[in-house]
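Go through this chain.

——
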Amino acid sequence: WCRVGEPPDGCIPQNTRVDRWVGVILLGAALAMFAAGIVTITVRLRRGRLGASLTFAENLNDFLCRFWWRFRRIGHSSVPREGPVLLAANHTCAPDPLFISAAARYRAISFMIAQEYTGWPIVRFFVRVIECIPVTRGGQDTAAFKRAVRHLQAGKALCIFIEGRIMPPGETSRPKDGVAMLARETGACVIPAHISGTTYRKGVVRGLLCRPRARVRLGRPVDL
């Protein structure tokens, strides 16, 4: 546009076709921002203390626990950052392992998991990433016990739900001996963990879809 009396050579040229390129310009800017975000997230994951895959899984789990299951940890975390650790927890619903992981997200925690769940596509990914140990129900699984011993002797953390299964409200079960046996075999300290505020649902899918106000309290370390 030219002012009155201004020579044509000194004014800003008017491009009558610029409106045709607005969509392309906005799309290009959006793609550039998306690419920058991907690069930033990738660099941050690679610099994570737990490695890229595990850091991604922990961040995703923390978001889901706080947004969907309204998770909160009661008090401070007593899980040490290094050394062999056994967490002994009650089992109230399907997403209990996610709550335990969110309660000490600075530490990679593995779980003893029923063999039949390891074939599920999504579960298979997390079993591999966090090094879960499949266990056969209904008997003494010597191979799983030996894997758990090696896991702890390598200085890692392992959580066991001492009741062996999800307990319906009002029912009780004699705790299994696995935690005590592993602690005596490896010298790992034991962290008692209590899960509350959850809603019992029969079946894994129904348990994942409900929205409780999950709470986890971690007790002081116990030397067996």
